[in-house]
Design goal:
339 residues; 10 helices; 23% strand; Peroxisomal Thiolase, Chain A, domain 1; alpha/beta; binds oxa(dethia)-CoA; single chain
């Protein structure tokens, strides 16, 4: 007997995914290099020449990752013209959740009133926003969901050792968000790539506070709950991984470096971005850089830069835009978007 096939979403043709709106939020408080000179043995000259960072934003007392994420989300919803009640899924990429659980995404849901959304967090350190974008893409391509809010948010000031000059000058707080939907007309994500290398987890990590080394009264003084980084090794790995990730999406899409109107990289160190630009043989003005004002905000960094690039008209309809990131894990990811 011939039974009719059920018309499930699996029978629908795959569809493309576009960013239809962006938003971002950074706290009001500015921490300058001059102020850091009073905290640790450093200088404005060292920080600027070694990193390009001039100042960073620090969350107010009691201001959480979900507070910042919700503000970025509201800005992205306004920018896209989408209502909170239309969101099917909220993904928050963060390594500084408000709590171990519930997820920060659940707190954002309540703060913005996205009642029908499913919510969860994505953990991929500084690469988290692009990992979350890729997860969202799969849900939309497969017709599982129509409207997804992707947020990168981190309050690194809460996990920095303010006595360690190797790390405390690098980081800041903030959040960036994007609303994703199928738009059609050839717009959307063209190619994506994600990679990880757990063998090098220890060059950039927070050793304590999880189940492996819970914080106790005895070990609290050892700063186990703060970022530990082998800066030189991380730097080398970042350049290699981001170039590899960029090449992968260019190969998949059949595009060349010259076809890219704008490149939005992770904002960790200006020298890393310059090294990538020189190996791509591209001028620095093709790269979106705002780390001088915000430092490294982890998962938020590329999301805040994307929003700034969007709002300042750095990319026009029809442009190809490359997003490329790197972070603890190690993790890295890239995405080419036909804007
Ligand atoms: O977001 C995740 C990815 N993160 C990254 O991509 C970060 C990658 N790494 C970096 O950006 C760089 O390695 C840093 C900015 C962290 C460090 O720059 P560097 O050129 O690799 O410096 P270094 O660590 O080799 O340190 C050089 C010197 C050392 O002194 P000695 O041993 O040469 O006497 C450090 O102790 O600079 C010293 N130093 C500082 N001096 C003044 C380290 N931090 C500071 C500081 N101020 N804040």
């Amino acid at each position: 007997m011939n039974r009719p096939q059920p018309r499930t979403r699996h029978h629908l043709p795959k569809r493309t995914v576009s960013i239809i709106g962006t938003g971002s939020y950074v706290p009001e408080k500015i921490l300058t290099n001059a102020e850091l000179e009073k905290l640790v043995d450093t200088s404005d000259e060292w920080i600027v020449t070694r990193t390009g960072i001039r100042e960073r934003r620090i969350a107010a007392e009691g201001e959480t990752t979900s507070d910042m994420a919700a503000k970025a989300a509201i800005a992205a919803l306004e920018n896209s013209g989408v209502g909170a009640e239309e969101i099917d899924l909220i993904l928050v990429a963060t390594v500084t959740p408000d709590m171990f659980f519930p997820s920060t995404a659940c707190f954002v849901q309540t703060k913005i009133g996205a009642k029908k959304a499913a919510c969860f967090d994505v953990s991929a350190a500084c690469s988290g926003f692009l990992y979350a974008l890729e997860v969202a893409q799969q849900f939309i391509t497969s017709h599982t969901y129509n409207t997804i809010l992707v947020i990168g948010a981190d309050k690194l000031s809460s996990i920095v050792d303010w006595k360690d000059r190797n790390t405390c000058v690098l980081f800041g707080d903030g959040a960036g968000a994007a609303v994703l939907r199928h738009r059609g007309g050839g717009h959307g994500v063209v190619a994506t790539h994600m990679g990880s290398n757990g063998d090098l987890a220890e060059i950039l990590h927070i050793p304590g506070g999880g189940c492996k080394s819970p914080l106790t009264a005895e070990n609290l003084g050892q700063s186990l709950n703060t970022i530990q980084m082998n800066g030189k090794e991380t730097y080398k790995q970042a350049v290699t991984a981001m170039l590899g990730a960029a090449n992968s999406v260019l190969e998949q899409s059949g595009l060349g470096f010259d076809d890219l109107a704008c490149i939005i990289p992770h904002q960790a160190n200006l020298r890393i971005i310059e090294a990538i630009a020189s190996r791509m043989n591209l001028p620095m003005d093709r790269f979106m850089v705002n780390l001088d004002r915000f430092g490294n905000t982890s998962a938020a960094a590329v999301a805040i830069a994307l929003d700034e690039a969007h709002r300042t008209g750095r990319m026009q309809v029809g442009d190809y835009v490359l997003l490329v990131v790197f972070g603890g894990g190690l993790t890295w990811a890239s995405s080419i978007i036909h804007w």
